[in-house]
Amino acid sequence: MSHVLITGAARGIGLELCRLYAKRGDTVLAVCRGVSPELASLGVTVLEGVELTHQSDVINLAAALRGRSIDLAILNAGVLSVESFGDLEKEVSVFLVHPGYVQTDMTGGRGDSTPAESAERIARLLDRLGPSDSGTFWHANGTPLPW
Ligand SMILES: NC(=O)c1ccc[n+]([C@@H]2O[C@H](COP(=O)([O-])OP(=O)(O)OC[C@H]3O[C@@H](n4cnc5c(N)ncnc54)[C@H](OP(=O)(O)O)[C@@H]3O)[C@@H](O)[C@H]2O)c1
């Protein structure tokens, strides 16, 4: 069982990632500005009231995470600096993942995959990436992307 932190968890791809990892039996820490009914129904741990462009919220989030072990952090909304996580006790691998063209509010419902399909692809990709892949950029379909 892993401890998985996911930002932008209230809807779209982030919500489906929360659903997927919770279904797998992982411990999900869902970070959001406000809890949606769909997120609330998952029964995962929710850290709400986090506007990622507000430094004070990020500092509060870091404080709330202190002492918690996190195996996987999916920064699906915005970017958290490494410092936001406080003292890191292990080496961290970092990957950039393009989710594909996904039918969410962001695209006005257009796209060639559903949020659930995209979440499935992202999780499958993350399952096979390891420390030697750190610093690489991928499409969720498993194709490495140049950058
Ligand atoms: N959909 C696509 O085709 C596509 C393509 C390329 C990249 N992406 C990227 O994939 C990620 C997820 O996209 P999506 O399509 O799932 O988007 P979405 O349906 O619009 O959902 C975005 C989520 O991020 C949260 N969020 C946005 N800005 C935030 C902020 N400043 N602080 C805290 N939370 C914030 C939103 O919170 P609220 O619910 O509170 O508004 C919402 O839950 C984004 O980074 C997006 O750029 C998506």
Explained architecture:
- The protein has 147 residues and is of the alpha/beta class.
- It has a single domain (3-145), classed as Rossmann fold.
- It is 29% helix and 18% strand.
- It contains 4 helices and 7 strands.
- The protein has helices at 12-24, 37-40, 55-65, 115-128; strands at residues 3-7, 27-31, 45-47, 72-74, 95-98, 136-139, 144-145.
- Strands 3-2-1-4 form a 4-stranded parallel beta sheet, with helices on one face. The chain has a 3-stranded mixed beta sheet with strand order 5-6-7, with no helix packed on it.
- A hairpin with a 4-residue loop joins strand 6 and strand 7.
- Helix 1 crosses helix 4.
- The radius of gyration is 15 Å and the shape is globular.
- The termini are far apart.
- The model has no long low-confidence stretch (mean pLDDT 94).
- The chain binds NADP nicotinamide-adenine-dinucleotide phosphate (NAP).
List the helices and strands and how they pair.
Blueprint: E1 3-7, H1 12-24, E2 27-31, H2 37-40, E3 45-47, H3 55-65, E4 72-74, E5 95-98, H4 115-128, E6 136-139, E7 144-145
Parallel strand pairs: 1-2, 1-4, 2-3, 5-6
Antiparallel strand pairs: 6-7
Helix pairs in contact: 1-4
This protein binds NADP nicotinamide-adenine-dinucleotide phosphate.
Main pleated sheet: 4 strands, parallel
Q: What is the 3D shape?
A: globular
- Strand residue percentage: 15-25%
Structural class: alpha/beta
CATH uppermost class: Alpha Beta
Named once each, the bound ligands are:
NADP nicotinamide-adenine-dinucleotide phosphate
Radius of gyration: 15 Å
- In which order are the strands of the major sheet placed? 3-2-1-4
Domain module count: 1
SSE sequence, one letter per element: EHEHEHEEHEE
CATH architecture term: 3-Layer(aba) Sandwich
Unreliably modeled segments: none
How many distinct helices?
Answer: 4
Question: What is the strand tally?
Answer: 7
